[in-house]
Specification:
It is built from twelve helices and four strands; from the N terminus they run H-H-H-H-H-H-E-E-E-E-H-H-H-H-H-H. With 283 residues, it is an alpha+beta fold. Helix 3 (47-62) crosses helix 6 (114-128), helix 9 (212-224) packs antiparallel against helix 10 and helix 10 (231-242) packs antiparallel against helix 11 (246-261).
């Protein structure tokens, strides 16, 4: 499969405007945000493609049985439709593909990372009226159904397998080496889901220095979210310098140093030194 490349600057500016607007809306739509991420990654994803992806989510939701029952019945119905009948699942090799973090590609390939497969589960189930939400377990995203006292978890990466308490404990222990905490089972905010997806994109790009373009747009989209780690500004500055945009990178480094100086003047001085070094590379 061809590697996806970002769109034109004009198209990118429009996508980012829409992304920021949706992220700051009263009820941000997860599928819309994920598809805008996909359009920023893939110049081939046009307006017709964005619409087609939403139509596919609607179509899948229409294939679910009408109100199958309680939380477990919903989890089983989603597993039977998406995991067994439609073949959505993940494999270790999917971690090596940028497409595994792009919703429109996951809908076509029916393969992806745990969090993107969970987005498919969430959006299909939500459209059908299920009591569904994302659960951001450390290192492995899953979906939850029902209230706390009757919560049912399912793992879309494993084809929607319904998890026992012991299964969830093993997933958390494998990622952290410690036991599960009740706070880990709380519903994930849609914007936190999007930030985690963009973090995965940044991790993919970090292992491929030749794709600093991907790292840069992933950071810049993250910065458009209402809440994001301040250190992303530093990461963006470093990427600009890496890409040869020394003046822009230096300006960003100096701005970040001003933020840092309020809590750590020594760190701020080190960042100012990086800015000076970036400017010196122009000579």
């Amino acid at each position: 499969m061809r590697p996806p490349y970002p769109p034109s600057p004009e198209r990118s500016a429009e996508l980012r405007r829409r992304f920021a607007e949706e992220a700051r809306s009263e009820r941000p739509d997860l599928s819309t945000l994920c598809l805008l991420v996909g359009a920023e990654a893939d110049r081939e994803l046009d307006e017709a493609g964005l619409d087609a992806a939403q139509v596919e989510l609607d179509r899948l939701a229409g294939l679910l049985p009408f109100r199958p029952g309680g939380p477990r019945a919903w989890a089983v119905a989603l597993r039977e439709l998406l995991g067994e009948r439609m073949g959505f699942h993940g494999t270790p090799g999917d971690y090596q593909r940028l497409e595994s973090s792009l919703l429109h590609e996951v809908l076509v390939r029916r393969r992806g990372l745990p969090i993107l497969l969970s987005v498919v589960w969430l959006e299909v189930a939500r459209r059908a009226g299920a009591p569904v939400y994302g659960v951001a377990l450390p290192g492995h995203f899953v979906v939850g159904f029902g209230p706390d006292e009757g919560q049912v978890l399912a793992d879309p990466f494993d084809g929607g397998r319904v998890l026992t308490g012991a299964d969830a404990e093993l997933l958390v222990a494998g990622a952290t080496g410690s036991g599960i905490d009740p706070s880990m089972l709380r519903p994930a905010d849609p914007l936190d889901v999007v930030l985690r997806i963009l973090n995965n994109v940044r991790a993919w790009a970090a292992a491929r220095p030749e794709r600093s373009d991907v790292a840069l747009w992933a950071v810049e989209l993250s910065l458009l979210l209402p809440s994001h780690p301040a250190r992303l500004r530093y990461e963006r500055a470093q990427l600009l310098v890496q890409r040869g945009e020394f003046v822009a990178g230096a300006v960003e480094l100096e701005a970040y140093a001003e933020v840092v100086s309020a809590v750590d003047e020594g760190a701020a001085e080190r960042v100012r030194g990086e800015a000076s070094a970036a400017r010196a590379r122009l000579n």
